[in-house]
Amino acid sequence: MLEMPLFPGYVFVHLPFLERNRVLTLPNVVSLVGSKHSPSVVSIEEIDCIRKGISLGNAAPHPTFAVGQRVMIISGVLSGVQGTLLRGQNNTRVVISVDSIGRSFSVDVDISCLKPIESYLPLKRHVG
Fold first, then answer.
1. Domain count, the chain
2. Range of 86's domain?
3. What digits encode the pLDDT tens for the residues 21-39?
4. CA distances from residue 94 to 12, 15, 109 in whole angstroms, order as listed
5. Nearest to residue 93, comparing CAs of 104, 101, 84?
6. Reduced to 3 states, what is the DSSP secondary structure of residue 108?
7. pTM here?
8. Which residues pair with 34 in a beta bridge?
9. Alpha-carbon distance 10 to 53, whole Å?
């Protein structure tokens, strides 16, 4: 059995505000997650949610999707086709462009059939 981290490369820490920059002096620490003005704060509720998910077993990382993100459909009849996520969660729709004729169409796709295209810089509105 192989154990893998739920969020590879992430370490959650609880620090007083004034001590946060000190963490950056530790070996192998690259940055704090967040904006350039302040690190992200993970709430107690989010930490509890992560712990409960792990305790249920079979927890695995899953990509986060953002409306407007470029995605690839990885299964089904449109497997291999790239598009743009139009909306997510309950009704996931992807816009597919047919560049040769300057037209687009949208289709319903199960979110589990999508893979984010890595070169995308995510928007603030996340889905997944």
1. 2
2. 65-127
3. 888 888 988 888 887 778 8
4. 34, 41, 7
5. 84
6. strand
7. 0.56
8. 39
9. 17
> Domain check: are 51 and 11 in the same one?
yes
Query: Tokens 């899953």 identify what position?
Result: 62
Residues 109 and 77 in one domain: yes
- pLDDT band at residue 90, thresholds of 50, 70 and 90? low
Q: What are phi and psi of 39, to 5 degrees?
A: -75, 160
Helix, strand, or coil (residue 69): coil
Query: Residue 38 gets which letter from DSSP?
Result: S
68 Cβ contact partners less than 8 Å away, ≥ 6 residues apart: 84, 85, 123
Q: Which amino acid is at 109?
A: V
List of residues 6+ apart from 41 with CB closer than 8 A: 34
Place of tokens 């959650």: 12
